[in-house]
């Protein structure tokens, strides 16, 4: 597995978008959906996610450039959703982060330059394009609010299971 971090000529770390950014973005945006009236700093978000604030800022900056987040500088600064959670679909986030290649594009790296390899590559392109279309289609069916509600329902369910285990019910 290739590391996500690369260095430039000066040795400075250059992080390119990865598919991990999608998961981090959704988690951060669920937190922000619960704090709609107040800005949340990258350090605070990183604390909730048990993530690294610098990398999270890179992810959130991309979402801000695409208009999904509002950013404010200064002591009372931070990030806020730019729209209501029910108006943001998971596809909006996915497409805003567009990391360049479909999730399953690794298949393309396995083909050779010979005739059979090129035939397989064309077939793989058709498959990966279809997977990408279906992914976006599926993600369009869920809003950020629905995801946040699902997380809350699971949290509530887990609390009930813990209580019943402790109480012997």
Question: What do these coordinates show?
Answer:
- The protein is mostly helical and 169 residues long.
- It contains six helices and four strands, in the order ββαααββααα.
- It has a two-stranded antiparallel ribbon with strand order 1-2.
- Helix 1 crosses helix 2 (42-49), helix 1 (20-34) packs across helix 6 (144-167) and helix 4 crosses helix 5 (115-139).
- The longest helix is centred in the C-terminal third of the chain and has 25 residues, at 115-139.
- The termini are far apart.
Give structural attributes:
169 residues; mainly alpha; two-stranded antiparallel sheet; 6 helices; elongated; disordered N terminus; disordered C terminus
The share of residues in helices is 55-70%
* Oligomer designation: single chain
Radius of gyration: 20 Å
Compressed to H and E, one letter per element, the order equals EEHHHEEHHH
Q: Structural class of the secondary structure composition?
A: mainly alpha
Q: Overall mean pLDDT score?
A: 80
What percent of residues are in strands? 5-15%
| Secondary structure tally: strands | 4
Uncertain ranges: 1-8, 10-16, 162-169
Shape: elongated
N-to-C terminal Cα separation, in Å?
45 Å
Biggest sheet, spatial arrangement of strands: 1-2
Give a short account of the largest sheet: 2 strands, antiparallel
Number of helices: 6
């Amino acid at each position: 597995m290739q590391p996500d971090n690369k260095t430039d000529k000066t040795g400075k770390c250059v992080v390119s978008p990865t598919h991990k950014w999608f998961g981090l973005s959704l988690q951060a945006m669920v937190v922000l959906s619960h704090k709609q009236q107040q800005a949340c700093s990258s350090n605070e978000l990183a604390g909730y996610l048990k993530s690294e604030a610098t990398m999270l800022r890179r992810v959130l900056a991309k979402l801000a450039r695409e208009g999904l987040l509002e950013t404010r500088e200064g002591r009372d600064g931070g990030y806020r959703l730019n729209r209501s959670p029910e108006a943001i679909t998971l596809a909006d986030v996915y497409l805003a982060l567009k990391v360049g290649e479909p999730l399953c594009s690794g298949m393309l790296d396995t083909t050779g330059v010979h005739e059979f390899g090129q035939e397989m590559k064309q077939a793989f392109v058709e498959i990966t394009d279809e997977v990408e279309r279906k992914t976006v289609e599926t993600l369009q069916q869920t809003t950020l609010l629905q995801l946040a509600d699902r997380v809350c329902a699971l949290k509530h369910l887990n609390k009930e299971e813990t209580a019943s285990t402790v109480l012997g019910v």
